[in-house]
User: Fold this.
Amino acid sequence: MWAADAPYLAACRGEPRPTPPVWFMRQAGRSLPEYRATKGTLNILDALRDPALVAELTLQPVRRLGVDAAILYSDIVAPVAAIGFGVEIRAGVGPVVEQPFRDERDLGRLRGLVPEEDCPWQAEAVRLLVAELDVPLIGFAGAPFTVASYLVEGGPSREQTRTRALMRARPDLWAALLDRLAALALASLRSQVEAGAAAVQLFDSWAGSLSAATYRRHVLPASRKVLEGLADLGVPRTHFGVGTGELLGAMADAGADVVGVDWRVPLDEAVERAPGKVLQGNLDPAVLLAGADVVEAEVKAVLEAGRAAPAHVFNLGHGVLPEVDPDVLARVVELVRAG
Assistant:
């Protein structure tokens, strides 16, 4: 079991440290040969039903890399899949929805999540990890906007044109959709924390397609519902999005303790956009493929920029790419620890 003053938790509380804690988004994944060997060809949604397997996949990067936090192996569409909305994850594609969300009739397909009945394996995986880990476990969920975009588009989309059209043409229906998805995310995260997770992260992978005004009007209330709905549990809350440099101020208003920053905005600039917030990030994942000298220089640059924040959690600006050599990740951990 981890200590209450673990470096990751201390940083999330805003306690500055000589060197920041470090973990990596998608640290449990295809870049690790042991992950590929253990998971094999098993679909992720099937894998999630095996708590022992989830625990093993979550632990692998902690063992190999020596990171300061583990993140629960899961997927952002797991809650909607658990309630039977009709989502599958196709290899090489991502989440695909057989019958995309179109009108009021589809709201009926989004019933509330009852974690102990719909996905009891998730809490069991958390309990197994709490017994094994000596670093904090981060629970996570997909933010309402990003999950909505999969449901409306029927699959991955970088532009979310149908989604953005729906929010403007039917703001009442859109608000109802996001409210239901917020309730799903909140139920899932509360279950993870109640089972022992020490912190949470809300991923808004596709919010970068929105203007700040659109985000504030049509998305922020639902994200706030999730993050503020966790306040009574007393765990650190991180809010992260991709391409969200123009949204950092709005995202900071949603109620998180830590704001994740992708690689497009230097951390010393992000401080001005999200004042007073602990920052997480933000090494460009592509740097990990650029050679040892580049990696060292870029890690040092992120560390230097991060000193402007009240506290800093070192991470990538998005997830680990499948082709990254795990030894490079281990070297990044060494560089961060060396300051």
User: Anything to note?
Assistant: Residues 7-338 form a domain with the TIM Barrel fold (CATH 3.20.20.210). The chain has a mean pLDDT of 96. The two ends are 26 Å apart (CA to CA). The chain has one domain: 7-338.
